[in-house]
Design a protein that fits this description.
The complex is a heterodimer of chains A (351) and B (854). Chain A contains 15 helices and no strands. Chain A has 351 residues and is an all-alpha fold. In chain B, strands 1, 2, 9, 10 and 11 form a five-stranded antiparallel β-sheet that branches. Chain B has a four-stranded antiparallel β-sheet with strand order 4-7-3-8, sandwiched between helices. Classes of the chains: A mainly alpha (351), B alpha+beta (854).
Chain lengths: 351, 854
């Protein structure tokens, strides 16, 4: 890109940026959450959401209201907004959007393959797929028996194809392999996305690279955490780590050697960014989980992305914030419907 | 004048609604639109309020109605809109209505579902027949051209061989056939190719007629395809791929007889389905037609019901839970109406104990209500756009009715243009009941809402146009000019005298490009033109110099009068709010400051006009110099306008200088003195001098009420107000800022009124340019072609006049007139910190379907 791209930014993307900032302003406020938490039934939640930007999105739902209905409607709303952005975008923003959808596509593919493994019907699983990651070839995923099959037959024409370079193998797709496939795909995806943002330069790189670095490191931590006590070998584990994060390379090597949570924590202690996060994790019951801490950090980064102008990061940040908001609402709604009010306050506030 | 001069007196009333009759009472109130409810449950979130269940029920009904309207619209049945709006349904009917609507919805949903199912069935059958028809040709082709099947790349020769082998064997050869969406064909084929590695043959052909999707109503083009494959595994894969691309797959008949049989069967079934479908559709239409009759009134009723429950949610319950307490703002003039509405509501519900109300005293500022009619509404809107007036303060809208069009017209002075504007506005006013105007587009509606403003603006422009003697930049000679050119040729003088007096002779006329009339020569100037500017100025080359001097002085005079009037209106405010000290300490010094400087300027202007004539004009002093000298005290005494001028000016200056410190310090010091000497004034007195908006009656009312009821809550509030902190520094600061603003503002605002001159000059010059550039060109061509040329020229002239001079210039003059009112006039007295009175009225609910559907 030319120097001083902000001069030209608004020509192509100004409208969308304005739009996304407007959408961001419609996120639920702290007061909204306080009101939501007080709700007694899902109907109350619905009434309260009507006063927010969600408006009458549940008006046409017949009773009784369930959490999953709320969830799907919220997803639909996000999807509508996203599709609008995407349809009105120009290059290179549209490529950026494609990259954003890729992560959902990966999740959907894996979900479908898992479903096929458990002999569930495609239709049943399709409902659970994230609407942002929908693509036509998706439903044919269960034809494939090996990853290379999957690539050659189904995914070769989708945006996911470039991420397959690392995971072509003739192994049959059992549960472990699917999980490996997911992580490998995700790794190549993150690295490619990171490279894209880096090459784009400008404010976009300044905003997106830290976010993606964090995302990569978070995956590394989570993979490590989940691999404790499984048959995954340490070498295999190391191949799954995305290499675009701050942990690369020493941290990843250390992580690969880690055997329990404390060792992981020691690795994190070397990094100024992650030390406070691990310190915030509570022991046993009562404290926050590592996942929540990461989510909070993510929200923080995404909110900060809105402090700068003329970059694509706002779109990413908005989608992520909206997702977090949906998770919060679903959490609150679940707590309400299951009458499990003690934990209702552990949603992640969006500041 | 009463109602427009000040906003109406409001009182806070407490309504005690028996819980059985509350609904009916509110319904009666809503029809009348008398009162504004106060939210008594502000800290209760929306879903914890009392009538949330009822609101939910209304929403449910709205959902059903929206569904009905959607279905009715889809079936193209006209929705009759009732003339009168039905009242909110009585509670007994609500249940009935709900049941009825729910039954209707269930029925409708079932019928539509059936219909959709039937249509889907029908579509499937039709697709099947199409498929059979088209694939028949495929098979023929396959058989005929099989050996040299060209679409296959030669690479796959071996597989072709395999295929023919297999066919010969007749084993496990399978067919899958069906329909696929047009857009997906290519991807479908590719995927088949990749997955089955070429062990399939796909043939497809486009379907001639597009089919309608029963769910979305979209018309989609389809392709019929036939896949031949062998091997069961590949068959599975093919089927999965077909599923993935949402193909409609139909069984493929293997033999010709089978095909024929199926086709016949299909035809009869299609016939049957058609008849059933028709019957279903007829029935559906009947149901919808019946529903359409009552849908409008239902929609209105539900809306009213919802509004009532929203209002009831704002009320609080009394201790016994038997009656609802609502607090409302009501104009005092409407109190008896309010009582009657309550009685009506109670009677209607047949309650034994009637609902009643009493007024309660309050310290809070009531909302502002100014009743307008269609004429005053536009002017009130101009004022409200600046800020809704504080309670009971002088409302500038009353004066704006005249001053606004007048100041506009000063800038827009041209009676041709004014007349066109007047005609346009008159057209709008005469047709104001026309329904199309009420529902027109935004821009047109803007003109429509301001039609009376436009009307007056046009009329006043005609007047100022006459004064400026300007009609499409030309002057009109109505009464005959007061100047005589022939007098300059007067032969009664000797040549020497002629030279001395500057009279004209033949050689002068011949050799000078510009000739000057001298009004001091007898007979040349016979006296002023009866109305406005003499038309002869239109021909003069020094016309602009003359008009500029005139318009400049005129705008200063108008501006100072306008502002002085504003300050005087401030006195009315002080009188009404019983703050007499403000008059002596603020308004009078302000007036003195303004009049001693700028009032004197006006005096000088008028004095010079009256005293100096054509003969003495050469010795007339310049007003500008005189005015500057007033402040500079020059050492050398000039010959002024009149004797003793220096003393008068010094006196005026002294008064001005004295009024400034009074303005700065008077009010704060007085308040400080009042505060310190509080004991001798009595508690209540000093209390209310600090609080601006309570009149004496309210205070006395409050006292008696307190004794009677001992209402703790109100008393506490009252005490709180009384003990309001006396902050001398703050008062001083405010007053100093206000004074600085005023003193500097006097100068800058006077200069600001010069825009009157500038805009009227611009308007005159622009219309002059338009005339010289267009019409004069057309008129100069000789008569034979001239006529042909004149037509387009006049047309262009008309268009440009309307768009540039009327709309563009008019808009700019309008904006400047608004500015002069908002800034220069209203900041002299208008606070504009009130809130508007928004009554609970059903009339404010929209009565259109479009809103419900959206």
């Amino acid at each position: 890109m030319l120097e001083g791209a902000e001069f030209y930014f608004n020509v192509d993307h100004g409208y969308l940026e304005g739009l996304v900032r407007g959408c961001k302003a419609s996120l639920l406020t702290q007061q909204d959450y306080i009101n939501l938490v007080q709700c007694e039934t899902l109907e109350d939640v619905k009434i309260h959401l009507q006063t927010t930007d969600y408006g009458n999105f549940l008006a046409n739902q017949t009773n009784p209201l369930t959490v999953s209905k709320i969830d799907t409607e919220m997803r639909k709303k996000l999807c509508r907004e996203f599709e609008y952005f995407r349809n009105h975008s120009l290059e290179p923003l549209s490529t950026f959007f494609t990259y954003m959808t890729c992560s959902y596509m990966i999740d959907n593919v894996i979900l479908l393959m898992n479903g096929a493994l458990q002999k569930k019907s495609v239709k049943e699983i399709l409902v659970k797929c994230h609407p942002l990651g929908r693509f036509t070839e998706m439903e044919a995923v269960n034809i494939a028996e090996t990853p290379s099959d999957l690539f050659n037959a189904v995914l070769v024409e989708t945006p996911l194809a470039p991420f397959f370079q690392d995971c072509m193998s003739e192994n049959t797709l059992d549960e472990l392999n699917i999980e490996l496939l997911r992580n490998k795909l995700y790794k190549s995806y993150l690295e490619a996305f990171y490279k894209f943002c880096k090459n784009h330069g400008d404010v976009t790189a300044e905003i997106m690279c830290p976010i993606l670095e964090f995302e990569a490191d978070r995956r590394a931590f989570i993979i490590t955490l989940n691999s404790f006590g499984t048959e995954l070998s340490k070498d295999d584990r190391e191949t799954l780590y995305p290499t675009c994060g701050k942990l690369y390379p020493e941290g990843l090597r250390l992580l690969a050697q880690a055997e329990d949570f404390d060792q992981m924590r020691r690795v994190a202690d070397h990094y100024g960014v992650y030390k406070p996060l691990f310190e915030a994790v509570g022991d046993g019951s009562g404290g926050k989980t590592l996942e929540d801490v990461f989510y909070e950090r993510e929200v923080q980064m995404n909110v900060l992305a809105f402090n700068r102008q003329f970059h694509y990061g706002v779109f990413y940040a908005y989608t992520k914030l909206k997702e977090q908001e949906m998770r919060n609402i679903v959490w609150i709604a679940e707590c309400i419907s299951q009458r499990h009010r003690t934990k209702i306050n552990s949603y992640i506030p969006i500041l | 004048m009463g109602s427009l001069f000040r906003s109406e007196t409001m009182c806070l009333a407490q309504l005690f609604l028996q819980s059985g009759t509350a609904y009916e009472c509110l319904s009666a109130l809503g029809e009348k639109g008398l009162v504004q409810f106060r939210d008594l449950n502000q800290n209760v979130s929306s879903f914890q309020r009392k009538f949330v269940g009822e609101v939910k029920r209304c929403e449910e009904l709205e959902r059903i109605l929206a569904y009905l309207v959607q279905e009715i619209n889809r079936a193209d049945i006209p929705l009759p809109e009732g003339e009168t709006s039905p009242p909110a349904p009585p509670l007994k009917q609500v249940l009935e209505m709900q049941e009825q609507l729910q039954k209707l919805e269930v029925e409708l949903r079932e019928v539509t579902k059936n219909k959709e199912k039937l249509r889907k069935n029908l579509l499937e059958l039709i697709e099947y027949t199409h498929m059979l028809r088209v694939t028949k040709t495929f098979v023929k082709r396959n058989v005929e051209f099989e050996p040299t099947y060209e679409e296959f790349p030669p690479l796959e020769n071996d597989s072709l061989l395999d295929y023919s082998c297999m066919q010969r064997l007749g084993a496990k050869l399978g067919f899958v056939s069906g329909l696929i969406n047009q857009g997906k064909v290519e991807a479908f084929e590719k995927m088949l190719w990749r997955v089955c590695k070429g062990y399939t043959i796909v043939t497809y052909a486009e379907l001639d007629e597009p089919l309608e999707d029963p769910e979305t109503g979209e018309v989609i083009k389809w392709y019929v395809f036939l896949i031949s494959f062998w091997g069961e595994q590949i068959g599975h894969k093919v089927k999965k791929i077909c599923d993935c691309y949402h193909c409609h797959v139909y069984p493929y008949p293997n033999t010709a007889e089978e095909r024929k049989e199926i086709q016949e069967g299909l035809n009869t079934r299609i016939q049957d389905l058609y008849t059933v479908l028709h019957k279903t559709e007829d029935y559906l239409r009947q149901v919808l037609c019946k529903a359409a009759e009552s849908v409008y009134s239902h929609v209105i009723q539900v809306k009213k019901m919802k509004a009532i429950y929203h209002m009831l949610n704002m009320c609080s319950f009394d201790v016994t839970n038997k009656c609802l307490i609502a607090e409302v703002w009501c104009p005092e003039a409407d109190l008896h109406e309010l009582r009657r509405a309550l009685e009506e509501g109670s009677r209607e519900s047949g309650a034994t104990i009637p609902s009643f109300m009493n007024t309660i005293p309050t310290k809070e500022t009531p909302p502002t209500l100014i009743r307008t009619n269609k004429f005053t509404e536009g002017f009130q809107n101009i004022v409200d756009a600046y800020g809704v007036g504080s309670y009971r303060e002088v409302n500038p809208a009353l004066f704006t009715i005249i001053t606004f069009p007048f100041l506009f017209a000063v800038m827009f002075g041209d009676f041709g243009h004014g007349f066109v504007m007047f005609l346009f506005a008159l057209l709008l006013v005469l047709n104001e009941n026309h329904p199309r105007l009420n529902q027109s587009q935004e821009i047109m509606r803007m003109f429509f809402n301001g039609r009376y403003i436009l009307l007056l603006m046009g009329l006043f422009s005609v007047y100022t146009g006459l004064i400026y003697n300007d009609c499409f930049s030309k002057s009109v000679n109505l009464f005959g000019s007061g100047w005589s050119v022939s007098a300059m040729y007067s032969s009664s003088h000797t040549p020497a005298e002629q030279k001395k007096m500057g009279l004209w002779n033949d050689s002068v006329v011949r050799h000078n490009r510009v000739l000057q009339l001298d009004p001091s020569i007898p007979g040349v100037f016979q006296g002023p033109y009866p109305l406005g500017i003499d038309p002869i100025w239109n021909l003069a080359t020094n016309r602009l110099t003359f008009l500029n001097s005139f318009k400049m002085k005129m705008s200063v005079i108008l501006g100072i009068i306008h502002m002085t009037f504003g300050v005087i209106l401030g006195i009315f405010n002080h009188l009404h709010f019983r703050k007499k000290f403000n008059i002596y300490l603020v308004s009078v010094p302000e007036l003195l400051f303004m009049l001693c400087i700028f009032g004197y300027l006006i005096f000088m202007i008028v004095y010079k006009w009256l005293v100096y004539s054509a003969e003495t004009s050469r010795v007339a002093p310049s007003i500008l110099i005189e005015f500057i000298n007033m402040f500079l005290f020059p050492a050398s005494e000039t010959n002024g306008l009149y004797s003793g001028q220096g003393h008068v000016q010094r006196l005026l200056l002294a008064v001005t200088a004295l009024s400034v410190p009074v303005l700065f310090l008077g009010k704060p010091l007085f308040l400080l003195w009042l505060h310190n000497g509080r004991s001798c004034f009595g508690v209540s007195r000093s209390g209310y001098t600090l609080v601006r908006k309570d009149s004496e009656e309210e205070v006395s009312l409050l006292g008696s009420q307190d004794i009677e009821e001992g209402n703790n809550q109100i008393e506490d509030g009252y005490r709180e107000m009384m003990c309001e902190e006396f902050n001398f520094g703050e008062i001083l600061m405010t007053q100093v800022i206000h004074s600085i603003e005023y003193c500097l503002g006097c100068i800058s605002n006077t200069a600001s009124y010069l825009r009157l001159w500038a805009l009227s000059l611009a308007h005159a010059q622009l219309s002059d340019v338009l005339w010289t550039m267009l019409v004069r060109v057309g008129l100069r061509v000789d008569t034979t072609y001239g006529v042909l040329l004149l037509l387009p020229v006049i047309a262009l002239f008309a268009v440009l006049t309307i768009f540039i001079l009327l709309i563009m210039e008019g808009l700019s003059a309008f904006l400047h007139a608004i500015r002069l009112h908002w800034v220069e006039f209203q900041n002299k007295f208008y606070v504009g910190a009130g809130t508007k009175f928004v009554p609970f009225s059903f009339r404010l609910l929209s009565s259109k379907f479009s809103d419900d559907v959206a």
